[in-house]
Amino acid sequence: DRSKLSKRQESIGIEYFKEKGYAPIALLNFLGVAGGGFGKQESCNPEDLDTLCSKFNLESVNTGSCIVDLRKLDLFNHNYLVQQLSNDRLTTNLIKELRVILKKKYGKRYEKEEKNLPDSYIKKILLCYKDRMHTLNHLVESDMEYLWTVVEWEEIVEKLSKMKIPATTVAKFKQVGCFLSDLSESEFTQDNLTQKLREMCVQLEVSYSSMMRALRVIFTAQKDGPGISEIMDMLGKKRSLEKINFVVGKMHNNDTGISES
């Protein structure tokens, strides 16, 4: 916001940046650009500590107006994540870091679902969002929660009722599961699902918009967010079907006020 840095600001302490998810090496590179000592830097690609030390020149350190562009820190951290994801060993380290963040954020809800979140799944999510995220914390924002946790049954019932999803749509959930189970893994992609979901609604004689709202409740319990085809692509076939079949099973047992008929 171009305001001057002050020691009274919360966002000047190291712990603040740590909690926000910035990597130490990204912060070091950012400070080097802000304070000088490294000559003219054309890009925001982070360099390792040894390289920074070899480049440092005390005579190049300068004073400034105390106004810093924190967007550069985002770029440094984004490029750091991209670098990590280009190497299998470093990607494994990122996955471990993200698991720590997930456990801290969601607690028992994450632990309950952890068995369904193998490293291969987390790697897929990281690679899909690498061009959009500046820190790993991006992956635990509210619209990303569906990737890591299970929506509670009571919340699904409440949202279906609140959003006035027609009973005729709800009654088709079992058939939705059957339709999707017939798709191959290779067909379970965002581009392909967009068309397949429309074909499904025509086949089931149900409103497309109504069914998409219903599926959003099942998958995320949210009113807005990514498109359903993107959500299902991220979840994968197995987890998408598990979430649908969970609801179908509850309806069959008539656990609450909604039913298959």
From TrEMBL:
Keywords: Aminoacyl-tRNA synthetase, ATP-binding, Ligase, Nucleotide-binding, Protein biosynthesis. It comes from the Eukaryota. It holds the Pfam family Anticodon_2. Transmembrane segments: none annotated. InterPro entries: aa-tRNA-synth_I_cd-bd (IPR045462), aa-tRNA-synth_I_codon-bd_sub2 (IPR020751), aa_tRNA-synth_I_cd-bd_sf (IPR008925), Glu_tRNA_lig_a-bdl (IPR020061), GluQ/Sye (IPR049940). Residues 117-245 form the Aminoacyl-tRNA synthetase class I anticodon-binding domain. One of its GO terms (cellular component) is mitochondrion. One of its GO terms (molecular function) is glutamate-tRNA ligase activity. Belongs to the class-I aminoacyl-tRNA synthetase family. Glutamate--tRNA ligase type 1 subfamily. PANTHER family: GLUTAMATE--TRNA LIGASE, GLUTAMATE--TRNA LIGASE, MITOCHONDRIAL-RELATED. This is Glutamate--tRNA ligase 2. It comes from Trichonephila clavata. The lineage of its organism: Eukaryota, Metazoa, Ecdysozoa, Arthropoda, Chelicerata. The gene is gltX2.
